[in-house]
């Protein structure tokens, strides 16, 4: 396995993605948490130093632990990682006038193990750069492999020690073949086997779960989403009926969702399932509440209460399973200090483990989202479930701006179902990150037949995104939108006007609240 030391680059996670795509397990650790002991315990076959926002030319900037260069394993420094490696090994780095941001070209001077079979010496290759500083004197033992206009030491190597440094970012897709360079490092240079697949992960995890759980009972909360579903099915494979799933219906789910969960888990997988319809409880607690954050707090709090009530029905429960993913586990490297501003309090069910006082089992905590999907496929979960659009914990409550009611939730569920049905019919579901309807607290005048109508406005939202951090509205054709609008207005009582939201994120957010 490979250790990735994070110096705070925006794209460190992509390094991990590329290494894992090569079939090699890797972990990201913040530079200030890596020390001799942790490295010895992790026993990596190779180390990658990430980029980062700091400048090596200033005092007090982050360094890799010196012991890392004495372990006898290959090291690849990327951007800031290259610069700190050079500085720590006796070379030097300067701030230059010639900054390179974006596309740049490398002139390959000499052969190198890192690009064997990918690039040819003598050729010119496109890469993606983002740097102000650059290396200007090499430590002993290093040679220049390639240069760019702005970086005379853009690609360096010390073959004897197997230390490599690149000023460009091989992990981003804007560096064509960058993934192959990282694969060469992990497989060719470090000698990793490249056999870390989802099938292998499944087997190891099942053994680990059995060892952790023993003969105790486990409770797993289901949300209807991909992560908790995959966690539940994996756990069930490992420990069978020692697992009980709990599904709380807060009355703000999409059309047919509660039934689908019951059908899949109880009927198809035969997993013991406690399904609790708590709609009345949630809807009455939300009565008259219009502040988005208060809605989230009320739903989050009640969810924990109801879940706890149901969980207590499981005798001798010793563990709580959660579908925590790797991006939630990676400790971020912060230079700015100070907490970031809360835009929305997404951790709507945070606090559950503390309240239940149960040991946690988190079988997905090493995985990225697309790896969870691959594992779901490996476990035979239906494609529809695996490819599902994300759905927020507070559900339709944050898609009904203003006070929520059972009637409004019903109206919205119908409109949303029609919209999604049309998206599926047009074959667009998988091209969209998330699509949903929003019921506005605004009434407008319309005419149907010979009568005046005075009903709600429904807004449609559809976005493309990679991780939900940024998003763009989906460019439907007009004919498609008209078709959806006509169907919603004709089939859903209570809506007489449909609009499409074309706001990107930022400055908008994906949800309306
Ligand atoms: P925003 O609206 O912040 O959404 O652009 C980004 C992603 O997060 C989801 N989201 C939530 N998920 N609880 C959740 O579990 C929440 O309170 C919440 N608010 C937004 C949203 O659906 C999108 O995928």
From TrEMBL:
Q: Which UniProt keywords apply?
A: ATP-binding, Glutamine amidotransferase, GMP biosynthesis, Ligase, Nucleotide-binding, Purine biosynthesis
* Keyword flag Nucleotide-binding: yes
Q: Which Gene3D superfamilies match?
A: 3.30.300.10, 3.40.50.880, HUPs
Tell me the ranges covered by the GMPS ATP-PPase domain, including all copies: 196-388
Active-site positions on this chain: 79 (nucleophile), 169, 171
Name a GO molecular-function annotation.
ATP binding
Q: What is its EC number?
A: 6.3.5.2
Which pathway does UniProt place it in?
Purine metabolism; GMP biosynthesis; GMP from XMP (L-Gln route): step 1/1
Q: Where is the signal peptide?
A: none
Q: Which GO terms describe its cellular component?
A: cytosol
| Positions that bind ATP | 223-229
The free-text function statement in the UniProt record for this protein reads: Catalyzes the synthesis of GMP from XMP.
Quaternary arrangement and interactors, per the entry? Answer: Homodimer.
Can you say what this protein is called?
GMP synthase [glutamine-hydrolyzing]
Q: Which organism is it from?
A: Rhodothalassium salexigens DSM 2132
Q: Which gene encodes it?
A: guaA
């Amino acid at each position: 396995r490979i250790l990735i030391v994070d110096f705070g680059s925006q794209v460190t996670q992509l390094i991990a993605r590329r290494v894992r795509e090569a079939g090699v397990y890797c972990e990201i650790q913040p530079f200030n948490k890596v020390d001799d002991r942790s490295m010895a315990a992790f026993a990596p076959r190779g180390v990658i130093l990430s980029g980062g926002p700091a400048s090596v030319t200033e005092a007090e900037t982050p360094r890799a632990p010196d012991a890392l260069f004495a372990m006898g394993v290959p090291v690849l420094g990327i951007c800031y990682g290259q610069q700190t490696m050079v500085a720590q090994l006796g070379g030097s780095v300067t701030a230059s006038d010639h900054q390179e941001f974006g596309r740049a070209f490398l002139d390959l001077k000499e052969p190198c193990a890192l690009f064997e079979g990918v690039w040819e010496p003598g050729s010119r290759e496109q890469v993606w750069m983002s740097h102000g500083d650059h290396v200007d004197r090499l430590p002993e033992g290093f040679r220049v492999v390639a240069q760019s206009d702005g970086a005379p030491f853009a690609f360096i190597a010390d073959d004897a020690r197997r230390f490599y440094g690149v000023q460009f970012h091989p992990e981003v897709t804007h560096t064509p073949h960058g993934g192959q360079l990282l694969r060469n490092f992990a497989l060719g240079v470090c000698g990793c086997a490249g056999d870390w697949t989802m099938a292998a992960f499944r087997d190891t995890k099942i053994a680990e779960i059995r060892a952790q759980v023993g003969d105790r009972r486990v409770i797993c909360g289901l949300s209807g989403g991909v992560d908790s579903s995959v966690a539940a099915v994996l756990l069930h494979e490992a420990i069978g009926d020692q697992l009980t799933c709990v599904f709380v219906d807060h009355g703000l789910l999409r059309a047919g969702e509660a039934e689908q969960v019951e059908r899949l888990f109880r009927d198809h997988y035969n997993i013991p399932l406690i399904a609790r319809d708590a709609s009345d409880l949630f809807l009455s607690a939300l009565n008259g509440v219009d502040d988005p954050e208060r809605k989230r707090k009320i739903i989050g709090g009640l969810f924990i209460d109801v879940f706890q009530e149901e969980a207590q029905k499981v005798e001798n429960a010793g563990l709580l399973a959660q579908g925590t993913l790797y991006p939630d586990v990676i400790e971020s490297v912060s230079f700015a200090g100070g907490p970031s501003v809360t835009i929305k309090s997404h951790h709507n069910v945070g606090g559950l483990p503390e309240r239940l006082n149960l040991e946690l089992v988190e079988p997905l905590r090493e995985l990225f989202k697309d790896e969870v999907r691959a594992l779901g496929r490996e476990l035979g979960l239906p494609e529809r479930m695996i490819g599902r659009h994300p759905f927020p914990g507070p559900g339709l409550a944050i898609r009904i701006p203003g006070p929520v009611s059972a009637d409004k939730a019903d109206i919205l569920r119908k409109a949303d179902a029609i919209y999604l049905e049309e998206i599926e019919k047009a074959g667009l579901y998988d091209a969209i990150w998330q699509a949903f309807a929003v019921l506005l607290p605004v009434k407008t005048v319309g005419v149907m037949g010979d009568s005046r109508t005075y009903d709600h406005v429904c807004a449609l939202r559809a976005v493309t995104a990679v991780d939900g951090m940024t998003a763009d509205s989906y460019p439907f054709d007009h004919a498609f939108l008209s078709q959806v609008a006509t169907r919603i207005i004709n089939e859903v009582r209570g809506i007489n006007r449909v609009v499409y939201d074309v706001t990107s994120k930022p400055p908008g957010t994906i949800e309306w609240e």
